């Protein structure tokens, strides 16, 4: 037997079935580098948050919903109230721009500003989610905060309409893309039993923030006689609130390992490889996921129409017939205030309902109810009190689509490690409707000679059509006529 035969009979680390003993110094001539233990993060994280994989018996019990999770939730609420709230208040600024600044520009064109915010946010949300999964939530949110505060400040000094489009529309929307999908995903990392309620609080705070923002900005505009000072003040307020909220945030998952791991090849040489993050490719082969994207895509064409045109509707239909003694400078702004306040209340209620009835089930029901409200109830709201009532009731159900994206994904597929990427991809499907929905509805209004009934019928029908498509997601993702979050065919 020669030395080669002897070496051939020895077991090596690269022989199938080889088990290295703890005292082995087989690789002792090569300097040993401490190799970090790689846990099965998908198993541990998904199991602890209610996903479909069983927990590792060697791991400790999953953390319960704790006080730290409530602190994180507060940070998400503060960001949503000021960041998403500003986007929900553009209807008040839209009326101001049309009536006092850019009077020769059609209101349907000015409505594109709010559409650009939503389009940039939703179309780039997948990039924001992927950045959070790779670099961490807090660095990504910090980048979005810088963009958002700078956009509002630059908007204060805009003198041309295209400058408003670039700052208030594009730049602020891009900043939102690196914040919104993350603050909607973080509650799912900390809460399981009350996941829908926690996410509803975050989404609902956008409505409360939108109500306060629309009322506060319009009050300051009336006081100062222009928008530069109010917007500059608001950018400072947002910067302070976002700094406090950013300090409250924390992830409840393994920190992304950005270092390069040392590995050894068969010849003993060392090489470096980056840790690969899970992608969303398998979901793109699932018809249930595509039906959910189509549901969001269609419904968002009608979702924002009342928020964009309630102020104009009040000024066009209600205010001319009112007693002048009851009118004030903010009369036409009150319907938008009530709609945003209803949005806050409704998203909290729909989140609580989602924990009981199921997330996709609650989404379908809320879309059908909101569509019927636009078609039927809005048409008969011809008095000031009636418009306020409709605005509040519509806000209760109309904003469920975006706030339930993360809970629906967690219900059907489990709370995965790449949750932010999946939520961002789902938000991408709402981009076309969020941008062009109010503008197309405004074009329908102009083409019909100012008939609001046609406008209301088109917007409501689109929302109801999205709810009908969501039944496919409910049927094949959860099961026919099944209620609650405990059922799924995709985990």
Describe this structure in words.
The protein is mainly alpha-helical. It has a single domain, classed as Growth Hormone, Chain: A (Up-down Bundle), CATH 1.20.1250.20. The chain is built from 22 helices and 2 strands. It has helices at residues 3-9, 41-48, 67-88, 90-101, 107-110, 112-123, 125-135, 137-156, 161-177, 180-190, 195-224, 228-248, 287-303, 305-318, 334-357, 359-377, 384-398, 400-403, 405-413, 419-428, 431-447, 452-477; strands at residues 261-264, 270-273. A two-stranded antiparallel ribbon has the order 1-2. A hairpin with a 5-residue loop joins strand 1 (261-264) and strand 2 (270-273). Helix 6 runs antiparallel to helix 21 (431-447), helix 10 packs across helix 20 (419-428) and helix 14 (305-318) runs parallel beside helix 21 (431-447). It is globular, with a radius of gyration of 26 Å. The N and C termini lie far apart (56 Å).
Describe the structure using short key phrases.
single chain; 491 residues; mainly alpha; Growth Hormone, Chain: A; globular; disordered N terminus
Quick take:
With 491 residues, this protein is an all-alpha fold.
| Cα-atom radius of gyration | 26 Å
What structural class should be given to the helix and strand makeup? mainly alpha
Spatially, the strands of the biggest sheet line up as: 1-2
Number of helices: 22
Overall mean pLDDT: 76
Q: What share of residues is helical?
A: 55-70%
**Sequence stretches where pLDDT stays below 50 over 5 or more residues:** 3-15, 18-63, 255-264, 272-276
Number of domains: 1
**What is the CATH topology descriptor?**
Growth Hormone, Chain: A
At the first level of CATH, what is the class? Answer: Mainly Alpha
Beta-strand content bin = under 5%
Topology, number of strands: 2
Separation, N- and C-terminal Cα atoms: 56 Å
Query: Can you tell me the overall shape?
Result: globular
CATH architecture: Up-down Bundle
């Amino acid at each position: 037997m020669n030395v080669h035969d002897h070496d051939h009979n020895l077991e090596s680390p690269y022989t199938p079935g080889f088990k290295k003993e703890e005292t082995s110094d087989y690789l002792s001539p090569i300097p040993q580098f401490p190799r970090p233990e790689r846990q099965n993060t998908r198993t541990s994280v998904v199991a602890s948050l209610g996903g479909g994989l069983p927990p590792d018996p060697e791991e400790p019990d999953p953390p319960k919903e704790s006080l730290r999770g409530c602190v994180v939730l507060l940070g998400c609420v503060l960001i949503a109230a000021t960041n998403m709230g500003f986007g929900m208040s553009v209807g008040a600024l839209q009326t101001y721009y049309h009536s006092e600044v850019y009077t020769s520009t059609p209101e349907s064109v000015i409505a594109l500003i709010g559409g650009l915010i939503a389009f940039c946010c939703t179309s780039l949300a997948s990039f924001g989610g992927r950045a959070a999964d790779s670099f961490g939530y807090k660095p990504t949110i910090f980048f979005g905060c810088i963009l958002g505060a700078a956009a509002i400040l630059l908007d204060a000094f805009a003198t041309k309409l295209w400058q408003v489009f670039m700052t208030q529309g594009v730049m602020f929307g891009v900043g939102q893309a690196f914040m919104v999908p993350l603050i909607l995903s973080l509650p799912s990392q900390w809460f399981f039993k009350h996941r829908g309620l926690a996410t509803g609080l975050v989404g609902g705070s956008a409505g409360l923030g939108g109500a306060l923002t629309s009322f506060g900005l319009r009050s300051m505009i009336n006081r100062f006689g222009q928008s530069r000072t109010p917007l500059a003040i608001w950018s400072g307020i947002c910067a302070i609130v976002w700094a406090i909220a950013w300090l409250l945030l924390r992830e409840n998952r393994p920190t992304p390992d950005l270092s390069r791991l040392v590995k050894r090849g068969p010849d003993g040489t060392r090489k470096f490889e980056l840790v690969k993050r899970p992608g969303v490719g398998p979901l793109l082969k699932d018809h249930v996921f595509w039906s959910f994207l189509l549901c969001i895509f269609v419904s968002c064409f009608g979702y924002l129409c009342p928020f964009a045109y309630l102020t104009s509707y009040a000024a066009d239909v209600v205010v001319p017939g009112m007693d002048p003694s009851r009118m004030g400078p903010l009369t036409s702004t009150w319907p938008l205030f009530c709609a945003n306040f209803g949005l806050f209340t409704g998203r909290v209620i729909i989140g609580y309902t989602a924990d009981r009835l199921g997330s996709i089930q609650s989404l379908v029901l809320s879309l059908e109810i909101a569509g019927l409200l636009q078609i039927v109830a809005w048409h008969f709201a011809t008095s000031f009190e009636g418009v306020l009532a409709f605005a509040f009731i519509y806000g209760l159900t109309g904003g469920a689509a975006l706030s339930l994206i993360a809970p629906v994904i967690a219900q059907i597929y489990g709370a995965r490690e790449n949750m932010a990427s999946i939520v961002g991809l789902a938000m991408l499907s709402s981009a076309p409707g969020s941008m062009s929905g109010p503008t197309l509805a405004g074009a329908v209004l102009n083409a019909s000679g100012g008939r609001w009934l046609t406008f209301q019928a088109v917007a409501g029908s689109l929302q109801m059509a999205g709810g009908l498509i969501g039944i496919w997601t409910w049927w094949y993702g959860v099961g026919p006529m099944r209620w609650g979050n405990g059922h799924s065919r995709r985990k």
